[in-house]
Amino acid sequence: MGELPMAEHTDLHAATGASLAGAAAGAAAASAAAAAPAGGTPTAAGAAGPAPADFCVVAAAPASVTATPWASAPPAANAAAGGDIALPDVVVYLASRPGSPDAPPPAAGPPAVAETHLSVGCQVVGPFVVAGLGMVGAGLYLDMVQDWNVFVNVKEIIILVPSLLGLKGNLEMTLAARLSTEANLGHMDDAKEQWSMILGNLTLVQCQAIVVGLLSAVVALAMVYILEKEEFNIRHTMLLCSCSIITSSIASLVLGLITATVIVVSRWLKINPDNVATPIAASLGDITSLALLSWVATMMYDAIDKSYWISPVVIICYILVIPFWVWIAKKNKYTSSVLYSGWTPVVVAMLISTSGGLMLHKLLSRYPQMAALQPVINGVGGNLVSVQASRLSTELHQHSEPGTLPPGSQICITPSQACCSRQPHAMTAQVLMLLVIPGHLLFLSIISSKYLQRDALDLTPLFVVTYLFVAFFQVAILLYVAYILTYFFWKRHTDPDNSTIPYLTALGDLLGIGLLGISFEFLSWVGDDYAIAPEVPGAVTTLPP
C-alpha cells in the first residue's frame, strides 16, 4: 500500500484529538486513494476504488453486520509519512446501507435454527393439550363453586369472572411473549440481565394487575347496577373490589414466576419459548385465578359482617403500593416503555370481551348448554393465536427494526399467503390449524363424559361436525388477523409483544361466542336434539381463555 501524503497525515493527526476512529477511517481511505490509479480501479490487495452507492464505509465491522474488507492502512503507512503518531492497523469495510437491496437482516442473539413442521408441532402439541385440559378443568371447577354461598348471595362475582380471567390471561400471555422475544434475541443468556429483565417485568405486571383488577370489578359492578337495575350495595362493592385486586396480584406473582421459569428452562433445553410459554401461561392462569378468587371471596364474605373494615383497608393498601411498583418498572430499561404504552390494548380488549360477555348472556337464556363449550372454543383459539403472534413478533425483532418491515414483506396479504405459502409464519399457521380438530375432539369427549359432568347430554354427530367447523373457522380468522395486526403495529413503531395478544384473545372471545351462537341457531332450526335439549344439569357458566 502506498505512503500517505503529508497533507492527509496532518489532517489525520489533528483528527485523532477528536476521534481516533474517524482518523483511522480517514487514513485507510487516503491510503486506498493513493494506491489506486485514476478512475478508482483496484490495483493491489487492500486497495480499492470509490465505495458503491449502495454501500457505506465503516472503520470496523460490528458483529451484527456482514461487511467485506475494502482498504487497509497499517501503522507503517502513517509512520512513513513522517508523523509522530502511530495509528493501529485499520481496516475499512464496505457495509450495506440500511434499507438497500443488499442489506442483510440484522442478526441478534444466537443463530436461529431452521424449524420444520415436525419440530414446531412437537414443541406446540404438549403445551396445547395441557392448556386445553386447564380450560376444561377451570370450567369444571367453576361448576363446583358456583353453588357456594358467596357466589349465590353476591352474584356480581359471577359477572366478574369473565372480565377478570380474560384480563389476567392477557397480562400473563403478553409477559410470556415479551420474555420469549428477549430470550430468542439472546438477552437472557447473561445471568445479570436475566434477573433484571424478570424483576422488571414482574413489577410491571404487578402494577398492571392491581389496576386491571380494580377496573374489572368496576366494570362488573357497572353491568349490574346500570343494566340490571340493581340496588347499590356498598359492602358488596367493597368485597368485589378487594377480592378482584387480591386475586389479580397474587395470581400475577405466581404465574409470572412460573412463566419466567418455563422460558429459562426452554432456553436451556434448546426449545423455542414462543412455542410453549404462552399456552402454559394460559392453561395455568384460568384455574389458578379462579381458585384464588373463590377462596379469597369465601374468606372475605365470611368475615364481612364482623370485620367490614377489611375490604376498604385492602383496597387502600394496594392503591398505596402502586407508586412503588411504578417506580421500579420505570427504572428498569426493559419495562420503562411498556409502563406507558401497554395499557391501551388491555383496556380495549376488556371492552371487547365485555361485549362478548353481553352476547353470551343473551344466548345462554336460549341455549344454556353453550356454557360448557364456551371456555374451550375461546380458550383453544386464544392459545393457538397467541403462539403465532409471539413467533411473528420474535421474527420481526430478529430481522428488522421497528418501523421497517423485512424485505419482501407487507402488512396486508391474502388469507392463502398467511396460511398456505412457504413462509415460516405460514408453516406455523399450518401446524396450529392441524391441531384444532383433534384437540377439540379430545376436549369435547371430556366435557361430554358422564364421569365428569353429571347427566351430560350425548353430543349428536351433526352438532360435532358443526362445532368443529366453526372452531376451525375461528382459528383460521384469528391466524390471518394475527399477521396483519403484528405487522401493522411493527410498522407504527409499536412493540407487538405488548399489543397484539390482548386484541387477538378478545377478538377470539367475540368470534367464539358469536360463531357458537350461530351454530346453535342453525342446529335449532334443523331440529338437532342437542341444540333444542332442555337445560343441562351441572353445566358451567361463562369462562374466557
UniProtKB/TrEMBL annotation:
Q: Is the keyword Cell membrane in the record?
A: no
Q: What InterPro entries has UniProt attached to this entry?
A: SLC41_membr_dom, SLC41_membr_dom_sf, SLC41A1-3
Topology relative to the lipid bilayer, per the entry, is: Multi-pass membrane protein
Q: Give any Gene Ontology cellular component.
A: plasma membrane
The UniProt transmembrane annotation reads 209-227, 239-264, 276-296, 308-328, 340-360, 431-452, 464-489, 501-520
Key word RNA-binding present in the record? no
Q: Domain SLC41A/MgtE integral membrane spans what residues?
A: 161-295, 374-516
Listed A to Z, the keywords are:
Ion transport, Magnesium, Membrane, Transmembrane, Transmembrane helix, Transport
Q: Which SUPFAM superfamilies match?
A: MgtE membrane domain-like
Pfam families from the entry? MgtE
Location comes to: Membrane
- Similarity comment: family membership: Belongs to the SLC41A transporter family.
**Protein name according to UniProt:** SLC41A/MgtE integral membrane domain-containing protein
Q: What is the organism of origin for this protein?
A: Gryllus longicercus
Taxonomic lineage from the root: Eukaryota, Metazoa, Ecdysozoa, Arthropoda, Hexapoda
